[in-house]
Amino acid sequence: MSDKSKEQKLAAFRKGEVGLPDSHWLWPLYGAGIENLGREGKPIQVPMPTCGPDELLIRHDAVGLCFSDVKVIKSGPEHPRIFGRDMANEPVVLGHEVALTVIQVGENLRDQYQPGDRFIMQADIYYQGVGMAYGYELQGGLSQYNVIGKEILAGDDGCYLIPVRPETGYAQAALTEPWACVTASYDVVYRAGWKPGGVALIAKGPAAEDGYSLGTPYAGGQPPAKVITLGVDGVLADELRARAGADGFELVELGAPSPETIDEALAAAGKGGLDDIVCLGADATLYELIEPKAAVGCVLNLVGAEGLTSEAQVDVGRIHYDGLLLVGTTSADLSLAYEPIRTELVPGGTAAFLGAAGPMGQMHVQRALESEGPPKLLVATDLLQERLEVIREKFSDLIEQKKDVTELSLKVPGDMAPDAFNAQLYDMTGGRGFDDVAVMAPSPRVVAGAVALLAEGGAMNIFAGLTRGTRAPIDLRVVVERGIRFRGTSGSAISDLRSMLEYTEGQRLNTNLSVDAITGLCDARKGIEGVMSQAFEGKCVVYPSVLEFLLTKLADLKTALPSVYAKLGPNESWTVEAETEFLKEMLP
Q1: CATH number for the 12-170+514-554 domain, one of 1.10.1670.10, 2.60.40.10, 3.90.180.10, 3.30.565.10?
Q2: How far apart are CA 468 and CA 491, in angstroms?
Q3: What is the pTM of this model?
Q4: Exposed site from 196, 415, 495, 512, fewest CB < 10 Å?
C-alpha cells in the first residue's frame, strides 16, 4: 500500500468513516481464572451491534491494561463490582481505561453527537443510584465496538463522556484514567468537621479525663442530625444537651462503651451509619471495637493520647477504599482536631515513594518531578535495583531539568532488615523525617514500618490497593501528638478525569511516558498475563482495531516495526507520532 493510501486510510479511521463489518471481536471472561478469558485462549467473534434512537455505536481506539483487570480475573463472580453474576452465561468484558470514537448516532441524539467525535469515559458510572462500572457490569474496552446508552449518556452525574481534542493521541487519552486515580489522591478534600445532617458518635474511653468541651466541630447552621454518646457525663454531657436543644439535633445517650452498647449505637444511627466518631481517652481496644462501625468517609477523632499505650490494629484497607480519616488532638476541646488536611506534597519538602518501580509508582514519581513545587528530596524505593533504574532512564530529561531543585535517590533494601532500611531512609532527611510518604507496595508491614519515616505533621498516602480488612499495627499516638495523617483514595471522579485530560492536552504532563508495551487485540491476554507477572516497566496499551499485532515492548519495535521505532521520543518513549505511524502500518 502506498504512503498516500495509508494516509487516506488513517484519515477515514479518525473520522469514523470506515465501513462497518458484520461482526467484531472481543474478550469475554466466563469466570475466575485466566483460563476463562476468551475461548481456547483467543477472543471470540460476535455479531456487530446496532444502536437504537437514544444510543451511540462507539469504537474502542486504545485500552490501558490495569491491575484492577487482574483482580476481576482472579475473583470472577466474587468480585464486589460484579458479585453474584452468572459469568458463564453473562460474561464480563474487561477494559475501563478507554479512548473511543463515535461511529453511529441514534436519531434522537444527532443534535448532540456526530461520527468522528472522540471521548474518554469515566469508568465509575451510576444510573438511578446503581453503580455499573465500565469494564465490569458494562461491556468494556477489550472489544472492538460497543453500544452505549442512557446509563452513560444521562447518568446520575450527567454524561460520563469527556470530549477529546482531535490531535490528542489515543493512548495518551486512554491513560488519563489511571493518571486521574494518581492525581485524585493529591486533590481529595476532607471534611474539617462533623458531617452536616449526619450522625456523630462520642465514646468515653478508659483514660478519659474531666473537662472536655465540644467547641465548634460543625459550622453554624450545619449541625448533625443525631449525636450518640457512650458513657459521656459531666460538663460535656451538659453541653451536648444544651446544644441539642439550640441547634436541633437528636441526642441519644447510652451506657459506657462495650460491644453491646456499640451495637446499640449503630442501630440508633440508622441506615447511613456513623459519619463521625470521637473517642475520648481511647485505648487500642476501644479503637479496634469502634473502627469497624465507621461509615464510608467517616472521620475518627482521637482526643487525648493517655490511653494509647499499645499499637492498634488499623484497617488500612478501609483508609484506601472507604476514605476513613484519622485526626486527633491533645486538647480537651475536641473540635481542635478538625483542620484542613494537607493532601498535596510539600513544595521544597521531603517525599518518599515506597514500591515505586511499578506503573503507578512511576506515575507518582513523574507527577512529583513535573509539579510546579517539587520536593527538594525525592526518594523512590523498591526491592530490585534494576526495576528502579527504569525511573532514572525513563525520566532522565525531567531529572536533568529539575536537578537544581530536586535530588532523586533510588534505594533498595538489599540484605538490610526493614527497620534498618527505614532508619537509613530517615537519616537521609537529616533526622527530621519525610513530609510525605506514598505507599504503593501492597503490604501492611510496609505501611506500619513507614510510620516511623514521617516528620511532625507528615502525611501518608496509602495508595496500594490493600483489601478491606487488611490491618496494620500503628501507634496512634502519632495522630494525636505529632499531627500525622493517613489518607487513601480509590479510583477517581469525573472531575478528576476532566482535570487530568486538561493537564495532558495542555502538555503539562505527558501520559505517554507511562507506555511500555503495545499490542493488538488478539494478544491482549498475553498483555494481561504480563500485568499479572509484573513483566512491564510501565503500562501495556491495546489497540482493538488492530487484531494481529503481537505484544511488543517499545524497545523491541526497532526490529518489529522500524518505521514506528524511528518516531519514538527520548529514551524510547511512546509519542503521538509513533502511534500515528503504527496505525498507518497496522490498521486493516
Answers
A1: 3.90.180.10
A2: 15
A3: 0.89
A4: 415
